[in-house]
Structures are given as structure tokens and as C-alpha cells.
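[Q] Does anyone have a clean C-alpha cell version of this?
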Amino acid sequence: MADAAPGPRPRPISPSVTTWRWHVTMFTSIMHRAAGAGLYAGALILMAWALSLASGADAYAVFTGLAGSIVGKVVFFLLTLGAFFHLCNGLRHLVWDAGYGFKPQTASSTAWLVIGAAVVATILFWSGLAMTGVL
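[A] Here you go.
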């Protein structure tokens, strides 16, 4: 009995990282999800702050010591960046919900705008903290 001719190569069921060429709109989509997940971590940190505050001066001193360390400041900087990115990209999604901004060039331009706005807002926010002596 003769072997049957091989069929067509199976195609992916849905787009994946290996199927599509990387571009800025793909990056912002992934980062929007990552920023949202990071904000959940920020909510847990906020909960730890409240619990340490309710647990007394010693627990609060431990929390503020961790938050004021280099690692703590990096975590809070990244949380700030994530919050501003998620906010700006969420506004972009609201424009999309209204039916605008879907042309590839417009989508790429607004993706870069979101990234730039999030970085600038984060730097301005942390500069404000530094100028007021909070840091």
C-alpha cells in the first residue's frame, strides 16, 4: 500500500510571538497586561503598608525602612511607571473604543506617545518628590 501524500503543514490556531513580527503596538499590548499585573503587586504593598501602620510603631519602622531602601525606591519607581503607562494606554484604548486610531501608522504613533508620556510623567512625579524633600 502506498503512503499518502503529506498534507499541508499545520498552521497556528492563534497568533503568537513566533508568528508575528515584533512592533511597538505588540509591545504596548504586552506591557499593558504586565503593568496591570504589577499594579496588583502594588495593591499588596499598599495592604502591607496599612497592616504595618495598624500593627504599631515597630512594624511601621520596618516597612518604612524597606520602602526607603534602594530596592524599595526602585520598586516604587517601577510601580509609578506602570501606573502612568497603564493610565495612558487605557486612555488610548478608550479612543479605540470610540472607533478611532486603528490605522497602522496611527496605532504605532500613539503607542510611542503612550510610552513617552508614561516616562515623562514618571520622571516629573519623582522630580517633584525629590524637590519637596520626600526622597
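[Q] Thanks! Anything notable?
[A] The two ends are 79 Å apart (CA to CA).
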